[in-house]
Amino acid sequence: MLQALLFMQRNRHYILMNVQFSIFDLAAEFPPIKIIDIGAMTVTENPPRPDSYASLKAHGATLIGFEPVETECAKLNATGHAYQCYLPYAIGDGNEHTFYETNACMTSSLYEPNTALLEKFQLLSEYIEVTQTYPIRTHRLDDIEETLGGDYIKIDVQGAELDVLRGATQRLNDALVIEVEVEFAPLYKKQPLFSDVDIFMRSQGFVLHRFHGTMGRTFKPILIESNPCATLSQILWSNAIYIRNFMTLNLLTPEQLLKSAVILHELYHSFDLCALILAAYDKSTFSDLGVRYKQRLMQP
Q1: Any alpha helices (H) in 100-211, and if so which ranges?
Q2: CA–CA separation, 127 vs 281, rounded Å?
Q3: In terms of pTM, does the model score above 0.90?
Q4: CATH number, domain at 200?
Q5: Domains in the chain, number
Q6: What is the pLDDT of residues 80-104, one digit of tens each?
Q7: Is 84 helix (H, G, I), strand (E, B) or coil?
Q8: Band of the pLDDT at 41, cuts 50, 70, 90?
């Protein structure tokens, strides 16, 4: 949990300084979250992604994941968690495409790597070398029955995120929070960039909440403290978090408000937004959950 200092009230304003608690501490029951994880491969140098959902899993969450590299999909299913299932599908626009499998499976894509750009940076082209190509049939998320009713969607498909979103307009109607990897430079040839994704997401009724981590590399031959993965000035990619418009929370049902608060508190520590959402929940249900949430934030 986020480290901090204390939450105080001063002149009718709340000053956030330290928070460390689970939102599940506030009530006996919250509605369970349904997670759709597209590009679910475990990245070895980071904690496995399913661990990020541990608190949600402990309170009834279910997960349907997709990983087109079959060996990686098998590894995910081998974990044996009853709450999750992974399918070896490439999610996209429903058409057949060329799949570019690389030496580091996590960088495989439906788009061809932009080697000329990658080679300008430290330790990028070395992790995105095509080892084989083959045709692959993609599936639209809207056509997969198991994805009905997803509350939270995470998309990390190396440049093909907008293709996934365009094939998921029905599923977006149910979704409350979406994490989508975005690029600010074309790491893959002809891939859509952040601006393209952002325009589409706004057309679907979502607004950008925040970036969850910004990553890049230094231009060759510069190194920072002998770390080839360090970023100095050029941001290349990030994870963009989209939410339902906070100006129209009255359009969400009480259950949707609760689910939104759970996701944003547990996964992103967006305490101020959670307080706003729970205040809307209190207003619509005559409860005091939002009041108790702010009180809990104030505890040392």
Answers
A1: 115-118, 161-166, 169-174, 194-203
A2: 46
A3: yes
A4: 3.40.50
A5: 1
A6: 778 899 999 999 999 999 999 999 9
A7: strand
A8: confident
